[in-house]
Amino acid sequence: VMVSTHPALVRMAAGLDMLLQFPHDCTEQRVSRARAQLAMSKFRDLLFLEDDKTSREQAINETLKYLPTTLDGNGLCAYWPGGEGNVSLTAWVVQFLSEVRNGGYPINEKMYSRMLRGLERSLRSDCHWLVDGFSWLERCWALIALTDAGRNTRSWSTELARKTQYLDAEAQANVVLAMAQGGDRATSVVSELTDELWKSLIFRLYQGKRMYGGFQENSLGGGAVILSSETRALARLLRALQKVAPSDKRLALLRQALINLGQGNGWGSTNANAEALTALSECFHPDAFYGRRAKLVFTSKDKKEENELTEDSPTMQKVYKTADDVSVLLTSSDKDVVARMETSYIPAGDGSKVKARANGFALTRDFLRVAFDEKSSSWPALERVKAPYVFEVGQTLEESISVVNAEDRNYVAIVIPLAAGFEPLNPRLATAPPEATPTGTITLKPTYAAYRDSHVAFYYDSLPKGTYKFVYRVRATTPGTFIQPAAWAEMMYQQSVRGNSNGASVKVMPALKE
User: Fold this and answer.
1) How far apart are CA 479 and CA 366, in angstroms?
2) What pLDDT, on the 0 to 100 scale, is given for residue 490?
3) What is the largest CA-CA distance in the chain?
4) What is the pLDDT of residues 134-189, one digit of tens each?
5) How far apart are CA 134 and CA 222, in angstroms?
6) CB atoms within 10 A of CB 304
7) Are the C-beta atoms of 398 and 438 separated by less than 8 Å?
8) What is the rounded CA–CA span in Å between residue 180 and residue 173?
9) What's the first-to-final CA gap in the chain, in angstroms?
10) Distance CA 158, CA 252 (A)
11) What are the two backbone dihedrals, phi and then psi, of residue 414, each rounded to the nearest 5 degrees?
């Protein structure tokens, strides 16, 4: 349970937790996690980040080591090693590298320079690697990343500022930021763009109070392929308007609106979380959260505890290792108090009892026992295995996963956990045995495939509507009865779109002696 006299702190904690616990590790997710930890470091004590320095440095160093594997021939970063480079993603990576470089961390300067050259080429009119339909927004992301890197972008900023008919609110905000950081915040062009930014917003009256009401129709033109969201757009506008209109009273409404957009998991996606946390870290200094008081009563089972949030201690965190109800009662306060409760538990039923569910994806999973054919000296013979699933140590299995995707989607993950008594066979390894290669083939080559000790995963930057088959082989290695967790597919940036197969129980018997 976390309790605070400031909603912003609770939202920050939720957003950071989401990033730290996110199950996937593409380039954007690694960079967002590291950027957020860097931005939140000044709130360490308020957010109870006890090992903040160790965790932050580990995230930064691991990301710096990973990034060279994602670079393509154009100097652009891909979401996965070996994938196609992406301008907006490269802009976010360059922003991260500029931030850690300014923080005193050594970076790969050669890689950094290649990315900057790639972003500079993307600003040219003859660039052919921009995403169709989003070229202007991507150019504006390249512009602000180059500005953050210390490049002279004045001519590009001026050129893009003349293209307002092609720029949505987020793109305009990046141009304003670039011009302001380049020393042009007082020009007539910036003034005109600033007016356009305010006009893109809706303000409403609610119970006599003025508040944020969203963006005007057609003010946002981004899409899922470049991870556009209301949160990210609002965060960019807030940062830009703070630079050029710091005394405008409407900024307080935008700050509160950004806080209110957060939910139990922060702002919904790794990209949105990173932008929101970065913007809030610029909006607030830790000192702004001190000065309020509140008295609370925590009740768990038969135990009651009276606690107080003081002017010098605006947050409180408690951990209860109990299955009983926990309640928090506010007895007195200067203003509202926000509480966030996070619950973790072990389900009563084990993973073998999980039933298949479909919400955008439908999955089925089959076991095929592989036999060695002495006549052909190969491993082509397959025998379908039905429940109860019983195998012997040393046996090779071919698993077949069918995934039905209901519509065209971007950034899809298919994750197939393995039972503990099995090891995956990766046919891509030079030392892979002949039985590692499955007889079937994957319907569509993934953008990236990961063969881990505990699971196999396939990732797609783009997955068209259709039915897909995934095959791979494992070997039974350890006697015992094990849980076969359900396989699942989801959109990485819209995790409510998710489906899973049935779970199962498998038994591995000792090999029969000849």
Assistant:
1) 21
2) 97
3) 88
4) 999 999 999 999 999 999 999 999 999 999 899 999 999 999 999 998 887 778 89
5) 7
6) 11
7) yes
8) 10
9) 59
10) 29
11) -115, 115
How far does CA 244 lie from the centroid of its chain? 30
Residue pLDDT, tens place only, 192-218: 999 999 999 999 998 889 999 999 999
List the structure tokens of 392.
Answer: 């012997």
Q: Which residues pair with 332 in a beta bridge?
A: 295
As a whole number of angstroms, the distance between CA 190 and CA 173 comes to: 10
Determine whether 430 is exposed, middle or buried from the number of CB atoms within 10 Å of its CB (0-12, 13-18, 19+): exposed
Tokens 């190969």 appear where?
378
| Gap between the Cα atoms of 240 and 380, Å rounded | 62
**C-alpha atoms less than 13 angstroms from C-alpha of 377 in its C-beta half-sphere:** 0
Q: Which residue has the tokens 């050594």?
A: 106
Q: Annotate 226-257 with DSSP letters as a single string.
A: GT--HHHHHHHHHHHHHHH-TT-THHHHHHHH
Question: How far is 158 from 161, CA to CA, in rounded Å?
Answer: 5
Q: What is the pLDDT of residues 354-392, one digit of tens each?
A: 999 999 999 999 988 887 665 555 656 677 888 888 999
Asked whether the beta carbons of 11 and 266 are under 8 A apart, the reply is yes
Q: Is the peptide bond before 388 cis (omega within 30 degrees of 0)?
A: yes
Q: How far apart are CA 64 and CA 108, in angstroms?
A: 8
User: pTM of the prediction?
Assistant: 0.91
| Per-residue model confidence (pLDDT) at position 49 | 77
482 closest CA partner among 441, 447, 454: 454
188 SS3 class: helix
